[in-house]
From TrEMBL:
Family to which this protein belongs: Belongs to the ATP-dependent AMP-binding enzyme family.
Domain of life according to the entry: Archaea
Highest classification ranks of the organism: Archaea, Methanobacteriati, Methanobacteriota, Stenosarchaea group, Halobacteria
Stretches assigned to the AMP-binding enzyme C-terminal domain: 444-521
PROSITE patterns tied to this protein: AMP_BINDING
Protein name, as recorded: AMP-dependent synthetase and ligase
PANTHER family: LONG-CHAIN-FATTY-ACID--COA LIGASE (PTHR43767), MEDIUM-CHAIN-FATTY-ACID--COA LIGASE (PTHR43767:SF11)
Length: 550
């Protein structure tokens, strides 16, 4: 028969165990750090697989987790899919009714849950019929009373440390992750063995997020969010050391792990890296000398952040992806032609979402259904396809109908593509502000505002407006002790200089915190709902005194 063996996850661990038996997997826990080697990890993974068999999990069944990033959670990453079962990582930050819906939709039979998250899960499960047939395993060493959960160590104890791993087909479902829909119920995305395999291989190319056996990899992005961007698999493929930051790590926890474990590669949303930045500029001395690269994605990496980390010898690698893409789609590496370019040009490119990783194809379609030119100006919706891009939503023909066309995933992201092929996200189709028929990029305004000293976070949303349909309003979280009035004046004057005047927000409002979605993104929906009454922009039109707009 032509062709090779199936594309599955198992060989990645097989190789790491054989070649790097002594390389460590470290985890921050409430009780301190745990340390295991790949050899021990492989044994424990086999024990978990045996325990799942004994419990009655069969090929195709779903096993759920409700956990932060730690070694036991990582054990489920190979232990569950390599038996032929499917790992369903639940996002514990979702509202209760979404959790109930997800557990029911996925038909989860067993949920592995962290002690610190048990109250949240118990709350969602309380009286909910969706949980009637669900059993719980406590990821801590002790029982969780509220859920009648078996301790993990007891669950795997006495099981053999080898397992007869089955030969699986490439299209065997291996993972399941729900993405928060902009409207309605969360949508499930299934990852097959070959999607995860090909995503890992693409990640390992120089155009992806490559790792080596000398690397120390710390995924800060949660393991419940698209498999921590696939990093646990990629790091294993490389034979790298893993460092898991455990329950709700704060900047001080991350700093300690970076310094003490010698972290070289890390990844997370911009908020994480802004947090560390503020921690350091706030007077805490942190040795970042081992840290080569931080992969920043999930939301746009502000230019000011890229420069700040550059100054400290840490490369920010801006990446774009989606749950539907397992998740990596583009990474902002410099092409060889740009390596001699001046710093400003390089940062311009690196601030964009980047170049498509090898293996994927994309097209960008404008409002007239035409493909846009690659000139960095024209924009349209990004569509993408490839071996690790899903082709449908789990059991949701309605959402699948809407989300895909001719085999392309319609990303809902509005982008430009420049002459060199760098993709830049201008907006979500749903977040773009349409003022007087013209589009205003909320992302661009946000980045501009966040570059001002004294601004911790900023988001810009479109608020309904009688004359212009929508007008931008900026919501700013000010740093402590800032003169707010002066800050608003400075921002408004600066924006007026750099942007068309109709782009300048009609109001700058101070808030204590930008509301976040369950995946850590700014929740514009919440702000939009809060300010839907137009009170912020009524009568403020004079600021936008160009009726035709430029
Ligand atoms: P999720 O499926 O929750 O990972 O969300 C995917 C969405 O996050 C994308 O469609 C983008 O709108 C947004 N996103 C991901 N990465 C970036 C990035 N680097 N810059 C801006 N937005 C991003």
């Amino acid at each position: 028969m032509p062709g090779g063996h199936s594309q599955t996850l198992r060989p990645f661990l097989w190789r790491a165990e054989r070649l790097y038996p002594d390389t460590e997997i470290v985890s921050r826990t409430h009780e301190g750090r745990t340390r295991h080697t790949y050899a021990e990890y492989a044994d424990r993974t086999a024990q978990l697989a045996n325990a799942l068999d004994e419990y009655g999990i069969e090929r195709g069944d779903r096993v759920a987790t409700f956990c932060w990033n730690h070694t036991r959670h990582f054990e489920t990453y190979f232990g569950v899919p390599s038996t032929g079962a499917q790992l369903h990582t639940i996002n514990p930050l979702l509202p209760d009714e979404h959790i109930q819906y997800i557990v029911d939709d996925a038909a989860d039979e067993i949920v592995f849950v962290d002690a610190s998250l048990a109250p949240k899960l118990a709350g969602a499960a309380d009286g909910a019929a969706e949980f009637d047939d669900v059993d719980f395993v406590s990821m801590g060493s002790s029982e969780i009373d509220a859920l009648d959960a078996t301790p993990y160590e007891e669950f795997i104890a006495d099981q053999p440390t080898d397992y007869d791993w089955p030969d699986l087909d490439s299209d065997q479902p291996a993972g399941l992750c729900y993405t928060s829909g902009t409207t309605g119920k969360p949508k499930g995305v299934e990852y097959t063995q070959s999607m995860l395999w090909s995503h890992t291989m693409a990640s390992q190319t120089p155009q992806g997020i490559p790792m080596e056996d000398s690397d120390v990899v710390m995924p800060v992005v949660p393991m419940f969010h698209v498999n921590a961007w696939g990093m646990p698999f990629t790091a294993t493929a490389a034979g790298a050391k893993h460092v898991y930051p455990g329950p709700s790590p704060d900047p001080a926890d991350l700093a300690a792990l970076i310094e003490e474990e010698g972290v070289t590669v890390s990844a997370g949303v911009p908020t994480v890296w802004l947090g560390l930045q503020e921690y350091i500029t706030g007077g805490n001395d942190v040795d970042l000398s081992t840290l080569d690269t931080v992969i920043v994605g999930g939301a746009a990496a502000p230019r000011s952040m890229i420069e700040w980390y550059d100054d400290r010898g840490v490369e920010v690698l801006h990446a774009w992806g989606m749950t539907e893409l397992s998740p990596i789609g583009t990474v902002s590496h410099l092409t060889s032609d740009l390596r001699d370019a001046d710093y400003e040009t390089q940062v311009d490119k690196r601030s964009k979402q980047g170049l498509v990783v090898p293996g994927l194809e994309f097209e960008v379609i404008d409002e007239n259904d035409e493909e846009i030119p690659w000139d960095g100006e024209a924009f349209g919706e990004l569509r993408i396809r490839g071996p690790w891009v899903t082709q449908e939503y789990f059991a949701r023909p309605d959402a699948s109908e809407e989300g895909f066309e001719d085999g392309w995933l319609k990303t809902g992201d509005v982008v430009t593509v420049d002459e060199d092929g760098y993709i830049q996200l201008v907006d979500r189709t749903k977040d773009v502000i349409k003022s007087g028929g013209e589009w205003i990029s909320s992302v661009e305004l946000e980045n501009a505002i966040m570059a001002y000293d004294g601004v911790s976070e900023a988001t810009v949303v479109g608020v309904p407006h009688e004359r212009w349909q929508e007008r931008p309003v900026a919501f700013v979280v000010a740093a402590d002790g800032v003169d707010r009035e002066a800050l608003v004046e400075e921002i408004e004057a600066g924006l007026r200089e750099d942007y068309p005047k109709w782009w300048v927000p009609d109001a700058v409002e101070f808030i204590d915190e930008v509301p976040k979605t369950a995946t850590g993104k700014f929740s514009k929906k919440d702000l939009r709902e809060q300010y839907a009454d137009q009170s912020l922009v009524e009568g403020s039109v004079p600021k936008n005194d160009a009726p035709e707009q430029e």
